[in-house]
Amino acid sequence: TQLESDPNTPNVVRAQLAPLLAHFYIKKKQHEEAVKPLEEAIERAEDSKSKARYNFILAQLHQRAGRWNEAYTGFEKVASSSVNYEMQFNARLNMAQNSWLSGKGSAESATAQLERMLKDAKNQEYRDRIYYALSNVALKNNNKPKAIEYLTLSVRSAGNNPAQVTESYYTLTQLYVDEENFIQTKNY
Q1: Which residue of 2, 16, 59, 88 sits 20 to 30 Å from the alpha carbon of 94, by its own alpha carbon?
Q2: Among candidate residues 50, 34, 40, 131, the one with its CA nearest the CA of residue 87
Q3: C-beta contacts of 83-86 below 8 A and 24+ residues apart
Q4: Vertex 49, ends 48 and 55: CA angle to 5°?
Q5: CA distance 169 to 116
Q6: Which whole-number Å values give the CA distances from 77 to 7, 18, 82, 112, 151, in the listed order?
Q7: Could you tell me the pTM of the whole model?
């Protein structure tokens, strides 16, 4: 607040205040309060990498709050930017999942989009994440058997992302507990 109100604060420091404030709110788990500073950070960002990063974080906050249209729009901005491939990939992955939740598509179109991503050679190392996203679409569409199939494929195609493997195992375990299939629960 002092830096922001001080007229002698250099513009370089002033440009860092909004992302810093957003980070502060996110760390305190006050996600709604982080939205406005992130929007300001996007407006003030001078390089495309920072702008894409702030858009991605803002889209995640919208997704967390169930604002699917805003999340989709934010991920769309990131996917169309010229940032690194992994960020673009994650944005497209989230767009596919949010498309039908925002009313921009159906579960079938989201599944088709994710399956096209599976066929792309550039996404070979991300197949575990794509299968996990497919399982999320299946779960939200109340198709537990298909979700279990996708989660099993996620675990089998595990890349170099141990967090994704853990999440896939955990989700599989929860699904088997819900079905009271304790032998499979133990396996996962």
Answers
A1: 16
A2: 50
A3: 83/48, 83/49, 83/52, 83/53, 84/49, 85/122
A4: 85
A5: 24
A6: 33, 20, 10, 21, 29
A7: 0.81
